[in-house]
Amino acid sequence: MPANFDALPGLEVPVDRIRRSLADLWRDDTGATATDDAKATQVNFVLHLGLGTTPEDAVQQFRTVVRFAQRYPARVVVLCPLHREVPGPLIRAKVYGECFLGRSPADRRCVEFVMLCYSREARPYLEDQVSTCLSTDLPLYYWAHAFADSSRMADYRYLLGRSRRVLIDSARSPADALSFPWPNPAAIRDLAYCRVLPVRQGVGQFLAAYPAPAIAGGLRGVVVTHGPGFAAEARVLAGWLGRRLAACGVEPGSAGVSVETVGDGLEIDFTYADRAKEFRWKGDFAAGHAEFEADFGAGPTRLGAALALLKPEMALSEAMFF
After folding, report:
1. Is 113 part of any domain?
2. pLDDT digits (tens, 9 = 90+) for 169-189
3. Are 177 and 242 members of one domain?
4. C-alpha angle 67-41-129 in degrees, rounded to nearest 5
5. Each residue of 264-294: pLDDT tens digit?
6. Distance between CA atoms of 264 and 242, rounded to whole angstroms?
7. Beta-carbon neighbour count of residue 282 at 10 Å?
8. pTM recorded for the entire structure
9. Whether residues 150 and 272 fall in one domain
10. 259/181 same-domain check
11. Pick from 152, 167, 190: which residue ends a domain?
12. Could you tell me if 270 and 279 are in contact, meaning their C-beta atoms sit under 8 angstroms apart?
């Protein structure tokens, strides 16, 4: 059954009447439509709900895109592939619209959704159908969520090749997702990396107060530990730390960055040849608190800080525009 498609809101319409049905969404009782300012679409956005998506998950990601669209009005197409063939049309469609008040009652912005449920047999015609649903002359962004097989995703060349950014979440993707030879690898962005932006900013700002030679000198290794549910975040933090330490002058191969499963949150621990030197950052996301402990030769420093991962809608905008 098309469970994800059925779980999403919207009015089911014939596929050949999608554009007319979208226009009808904005007509009031007098027949007037929403102003062009209210529908000032800024981007085209395609949310592809992979086969690893449950109905509850589909609704959650749908609401994330709605919150994103409050800041960046968008024409959104949601793709809902069928897990197995079922009797009925090869492609089904829904339309949905929602408006938001901005800084004043006169500041109203609207977002338009088209949901497409399709069978494997309809796959060769999907890109043509998606292209007719998008606004012309606007940039396209593509979010492939919870897909199960990179090689099968690579068949969506229209979306992968045309999109300004292709968003994946390495916490919900196959192990080879970041290394797979996508048609446009420069466009790939990892939402897990974007989620830890507050961590990268906090750790980076703290370490920036010390001279690079003090941080790099005598460094033997770095361990990033993580609890359940934070493996992807730990992995992207380890990669970021490796790049930043190399910029501080750490010679390649002299101080590796490893990842281990320990504890509940995230922790970063630098090991030095001089045992008097130290740097440790420990983050507790449940408590919303982080702690720094450091001594780079000028005396110990202890500091607490607030902590939170980036909200999903903010991670989307970070991945798309920055």
Report:
1. yes
2. 999 999 999 999 999 999 999
3. no
4. 95
5. 899 999 999 999 999 999 999 999 999 999 9
6. 23
7. 17
8. 0.93
9. no
10. no
11. 190
12. yes
